[in-house]
Design a protein that fits this description.
The structure is a homodimer of 221-residue chains. The first copy, chain A, is mainly α and 221 residues long. Helices cover 56% and strands 11% of the residues of chain A. Chain A is built from ten helices and three strands, in the order H-H-H-H-H-H-H-H-H-E-E-E-H. In chain A, helix 2 runs antiparallel to helix 7 (108-126), helix 6 crosses helix 7 and helix 9 packs across helix 10. Chain A is flat and about 55 Å long.
């Protein structure tokens, strides 16, 4: 993980913590006596919330209702997934044989969780100040880039847009394949009858979210 | 506020922050150019969540689901109100003339908010380490006292108890007095027809919660 530590500019002391941060419960279960990342994720979630609260408090003039909303968008699953992928954290994840991947990739929720677990590990290992600095280095470029907005729910965002512009919105299940325990759903989203996005995932709901995300990108919302 | 600073063992640098921490919006509105405590409360809420998460992570063996539940009970309104009153923070609250009190006392929500706002002020003024130490000094005695349990919702807790013991539960509005804008409700809670608690408040719901809390204390739950 040296490359990762260099990338996020930390000098870890307790390497064991970082191993735990990347261990999914399915992996921990198969390797007795090892802990999984879930408790670290709980801790990292709280670190993130505070660091972002502090940043918004100190740098924006928003009231607490607006800050709550803005923060939610930068710590939602889609945002965490983006941070995680941008650092290549997915390369270090360990899951057990029982944990199915979707299309050869880790499930989005796991990739997102790993980011929080890593922040939890840094907080425990190197303290709040280092964890804060690390989080700010990663997240502030997103917060300060007006072209990037995370939606915790792309379908709702698209619905809102379509309502405003009085267009029709429709999701269509195009394909359903694979065995029962490992299905793959392909969903298209149509606005006024025109395809704006196609999503593929292990759950129909997630495939719809993916399709909606692509549509939102096309519409440049 | 010197007495308070001595009690919580801090040496404040920026006194203005602490003034804001005790200023309700109704007071700020009447004294133009002053800020109210709401943004500090947002920040303090996040500090509290992290400090308690850290404490539970480091001192308990609970999984993340249990930690989430336990933390919720120690940062719920009833708990914050208790911490606030135990420090006498209510003596420093400033509200405007428009803000009605209930029975001569500040509303519970305001007293609870003030605690979070104070923690937010300490975090900004003296840093995370001092805020953490202050929070732990106040909260750990509650966490480690098996006789103290905070319920975010006393009525639900009582309902649960009564269901288990197969008794009947009934709330009765005994008295309703005062002018429309400042009503006082008196509610009794009866278990199997016997009065277990009486609550008095400006809202019927809150009076029921108070009555339920007294009943829970009597039942030693």
């Amino acid at each position: 993980m040296d490359e990762l530590f260099k990338k996020i500019k930390i000098n870890p002391k307790d390497l064991q913590l970082y191993k735990i941060a990347f261990s999914h419960s399915s992996y921990a279960n198969e390797h007795r006596a090892k802990q999984d990342y879930e408790r670290l994720e709980f801790l990292g979630d709280a670190v993130l919330d505070l660091v972002v609260a502090d940043y918004l408090y100190s740098n924006k003039k928003e009231n607490e209702g607006e800050m709550t909303k803005v923060r939610a968008s930068y710590v939602c699953e889609n945002a965490l997934y983006e941070y995680s992928m941008s650092l290549g954290l997915n390369n270090y994840i360990k899951v057990g044989h029982g944990e199915e991947k979707e299309g050869g990739k880790f499930k989005k929720a796991i990739v997102a969780d790993i980011f929080e677990a890593l922040i939890g590990a840094i907080y425990l290992d190197l303290g709040y100040a280092t964890a804060r600095k690390t989080v700010l280095n990663i997240i502030v470029p997103y917060i300060e880039n007006p072209d990037i907005v995370f939606f915790s729910d792309y379908k709702s965002a698209l619905q809102e847009y379509v309502q405003t512009s009085q267009q029709s919105l429709h999701y269509e299940l195009i394909k359903e394949e694979g065995p029962a325990h490992n299905k793959r759903f392909t969903v298209q989203v149509k606005i006024d009858g025109i395809v704006y996005g196609t999503g593929v995932s292990g759950s129909k709901k997630e495939a719809e979210q993916e399709a909606a995300k692509i549509a939102l990108d096309k519409l440049a919302i």
